[in-house]
Specification:
The chain is 17% helix and 33% strand. It has 168 residues and is α+β, with helices and mostly antiparallel strands. The strands form 3 sheets. Strands 1, 4, 7 and 8 form a 4-stranded mixed β-sheet that branches. It has a 4-stranded antiparallel β-sheet with strand order 3-2-5-6, with no helix packed on it. The longest helix has 20 residues.
Amino acid sequence: MTRRAFGVFIGLFGVIGLALAAETPAVEGTVRGADGKSLQGADVRLEAQSTKAAPVLTKTDGSGKYRFTNVSRGVYRVTVLSGKVVRGFIDGIQVNGTKRIDFDIKPTGAKKAKHLVYVPAQTGSHIGGGWVEFDDDNATATGDQRVKKMSGDQLRRLQTGGQGTDGH
């Protein structure tokens, strides 16, 4: 092989190598917080859904950007975490080349927790106790607002149309 042919061969091999390196799959994007500004220092996790590979973790930079390089082709899930709280995720991302996934974290309304309190049966009643739902600050019972409590005598008067036990 002559020197010229060898040089062409090496040059061609180099060009092919650069072309293949340029097509190495990657996942990149930007994370913005609820205020619309870039979220720096947030954890971004890349999990393969098509294989059992371990998840890869990176942090966003000062401008909220992240990048995973040398990603194998396949299906992935990208998750954004702030502390230990999941702020958002996208499933089923097909990676064949460089894929851009941006996150705009929207504010979520605070979920109201259900607080259930058991109220035992009242003395003299054949009706068993039950659970009453309280609101978040436990100030008022939401289920109790529809219940009117009265004594047995008051209930008998209500059932008989206002007459007492003696018929009046």
